[in-house]
Design a protein that fits this description.
The chain has 145 residues and is an alpha+beta fold. It has one domain: Beta-Lactamase (2-Layer Sandwich), CATH 3.30.450.40. 41% of the residues lie in helices and 14% in strands. It has 4 helices and 3 strands. A 3-stranded antiparallel β-sheet has the order 1-2-3, sandwiched between helices. β2 and β3 form a beta hairpin. The radius of gyration is 20 Å and the shape is elongated. It starts with 16 loop residues before the first helix and ends in a 13-residue tail after the last helix.
Length: 145
């Protein structure tokens, strides 16, 4: 993640499968990767496998893309190559929404604790302890709506 994360200066080309999903905000499925000139071969080099079937799902918060979830080369029964279908794409879209929400929430907590640290380290630690607690029933005399 450090190699390609927020702190990295490395980016995937916008012409690639992942780049198209990121810029359009739509899921991008490519089954003819070998013939696709826009395929980013850096993925193949990193995985040491040849990409044949790729699904890229944009990670979006509101109308803004924050990343891309990408899966490669679905394996069928045995070791046979299979292709991703509409059911796979629906599951990946849902997983992408969950991942984007988790990434956004982590970012918000990081910003909040950084701001609270400017005022009081004790308050920031108290907030982190409360966020780590499992949700439970509220007390009846709670004045929270």
């Amino acid at each position: 993640m450090q190699k390609w994360g927020m702190q990295s200066n490395r980016r995937v080309p916008l012409e690639s499968n992942a780049g198209q999903a990121f810029t359009s905000g739509l899921i991008h499925h490519a089954t003819t990767v070998r013939q696709d000139e826009s395929h980013y071969t850096g993925v193949d080099e990193q995985t040491r496998k040849r990409s044949k079937d790729i699904v890229s799902v944009p990670l979006r918060i509101g109308d803004r893309s924050i990343g891309v979830l990408q899966v490669l080369n679905k394996i069928g029964g045995g070791d046979d190559q299979a292709t991703y279908d509409s059911h796979d794409c629906a599951l990946l879209t849902h997983l992408g929404r969950l991942a984007a929400t988790a990434i956004n929430n982590a970012s918000l907590v990081r910003k909040l604790t950084a701001q609270m640290g400017l005022y009081s380290r004790d308050l920031a630690e108290d907030l982190l302890e409360r966020l780590d607690q499992p949700a439970g029933p509220r007390a009846p005399d709670s004045d929270v709506c």
